[in-house]
Structure formats: C-alpha cells, structure tokens
Amino acid sequence: MNEKEELTPLEQDWRTRSLNAPSPVQQFGPCGRIMKNSAMVMQIQDPASQRLTWYKPPLAVLVIKKVRDSTVLSPFVQLVEWLIQEKHMVVWVESAVLDDPLLIQDKKFQNIKDKCVTFKDGRDDLTDRIDFIICLGGDGTLLYASLLFQQSVPPVMAFHLGSLGFLTPFQFQNFQDQVTNVLEGHAALTLRSRLRCIIVRKNYKDHKNDSDRNDLAECDSSGVNSINNSNALPSTNILVLNEVVIDRGPSPYLSNIDLFLDGRHITSVQGDGLIVSSPSGSTAYALAAGASMVHPSVPAIMITPICPHSLSFRPIVVPAGVELKISISPDSRNTSWVSFDGRNRQELLHGDSLRVTTSIYPVPSICSQDQISDWFDSLAECLHWNVRKRQKCLDELSDLTGSGSEDTLDELDSVNQI
Q1: Does the chain have fewer CB atoms within 10 Å around its N or its C terminus?
Q2: 139 assigned to active site
C-alpha cells in the first residue's frame, strides 16, 4: 500500500481487529528511511536487520537538551558549534533553550546563536522540516521528541547525559565520530512502537464519531493540530512512547474501570488504576507495578494494574494489533484521570472512554551497537538486572563427589561417633 494512500473504511475496520501489529511507516522525516534488503518477506522485515539509510543528505537537525541542568550546557554548545561549522547543517533548537541565563553568558555560543533556527513548543509544526534529531540528556528528551512529532518521526540519536538513560545508548565523549557514522548511514535502528490514544467524550460523541474513526486509522493530522494549538482544549488524540496511565486521581475511592478488547468486555479494574504501555514503556512505570520487561521490537501492548484490590490480577500482554477501550464503570463512585507519557493530564468522566491501539508511526531510535546489545546493556547498567554475588563453588567437597555415596556417608558417621 502506498504510504500516502488513505485507508478505506473496510481497511480501517480490519486493521483494528488484526492480531498482528500494523506495518510501520518506513520513512522518517524528509530524508530517513529503512534500508530495504533481501531479508524482507512480504514487506515484514526482520527487526535485527533494520538499518538506517539516507536517500538524500540530511541538512536540518533538531537538538533537544535536558532542561534545568547546567552539566548539559557545555556538551550542547560543543555539539551545536560542530554541527554548524564542521557539518554545515541547519540546527533547530527550542526558543526557550536560548533563554537559559547560563547559555546567554557563554561567549562561544553567542557567536553561533544567530545561526540557529528556533521553534516554540505548542505553536510551531515541525512536520517535514527536520531530517535528524539529537537528544542530550535522559529518557525524558526522547519522550519529548516523540511528543513533538505526532506522525512520522525523524531518526533519533540519544546521548546519555541524564540520570537513568535507559533509552539513551550513546556516550558523548567521542560524539564527532559517532554522529559522522550516523550521517554516513552506518547505524542500526530500533523501531520503538507508539500507542495511539483517543479520548471519546460523551458530550461530543455524536459530533466527533466520524473524525475519531479517521483518527484511529491515522489518516489525518487532527492529533497534531490539537497539540500544536495552544488555545485549544486538551488534546484527545495523542501518540505516546511509554504509556498511558488511568488512575483515581485525588479521590479516596477505588478506581472502577471497564476494560474492553476489540469490543469484548475483558474485565473490570478495581484498584488505584491501570497502565497501558508499549514495549519501550515496559521498563518504565509498568516495571515498578510488576510488569514483565519486553524488548522494544516485540509487537505487543502491556496491560498492568496499579495496586489492584485482587490477589489474582496479574499483568498481561496482548497482541499489538488489537484495540483497547477503557471506560468508567457506570456504578463507579468517582471519575478517573488519564495522562500520556506523564503529560496532558485530564479527567475522564462517566460516559467518556479511552481507545488505545498501536500506531503506525514508530520512533526510529538509532542503536549504539545493535538492538540486542543496547537493550541488555541498559538492563544491566541502569536496572542492575539479575545482579547478585556469585555462589561459591564446592571445592572443599570435590573429593566426596568422586567417591561412592555410601562409603562417604559411612565414613562421615564413623567420624561423628568418634
């Protein structure tokens, strides 16, 4: 199917009921796309063989830095100066970054400040303007990049300059060589799937039914418009990289939430809330709530209860292609609140519902090594996964293992009697 071709209503309906994840868009921004190779079968490529290629040289790069962190200022200045003077690229930065007092005092940056192109979050649309994204900071910078691009996302290269850094595999020490390798097309990719979240309001259901169906099939840009319009109501159509969280908010009562899968009622959640996460989000909030860790290339959606009032409510994993519907139970004592990657928090009233499915627009995260090595390195370094002291070997009993068991026991009994 052509990437620009719109889906028919029949195709839209089929996609949300398929047990397979939707085929991701393989073009990232104006310049980047997945390199096609012989490993592709029926246009489903082995995730381990996904590598970045540029079909025209990238010129515009967006640099995202961690806010309110003075330790990131020096790397930020070095990177921007090098990209402009050595690579002759057009560097985009958020206008709020240039207002940092410490950055204003930096004489080196003042020489290149006027060469940077600025944008304002919530006002300027960056669609098809950015070829390449570089993040300096922690995992929050990658989440912010996902928020800025609510459809096709340019390739993202994330440097670890934050606290945890589970999603930021690159070290900054030799950034020149690493960025050059990526710009030359020598890089593996991890396609981090995102979740398309749509709130259907009871009061606006009749007015928005048709547009919401189109939103779910991702054939329009209403999600982008609602996010970038600062005067609009909170967005009801958002792509999230980690998770969408439904909780009881300030109410002292249990959440009472009905969960549907492809139109079928699965269960009712009674507890503090519910986490619906992508594979990337399985190592975030869901991990703290007891979910399994899932590799980001696995096509799946995780459903994790938050402090359920039940001893048997375990987290589950469902196929990526299903459509989840979450609504407030009619007999619930209170409303619920929903947040998307920790942002855009808003209230779900009785009669409102939240629909979640896998988006066709992943975040193409550039690997430092490869998909497997990067993920297990992050598990070991950031989460200390399965770290414990090694059990000592039984050298002192090695002679016993080589002799007969009966003789050994007899000898031990005689020793004990003496």
Answers
A1: C
A2: yes
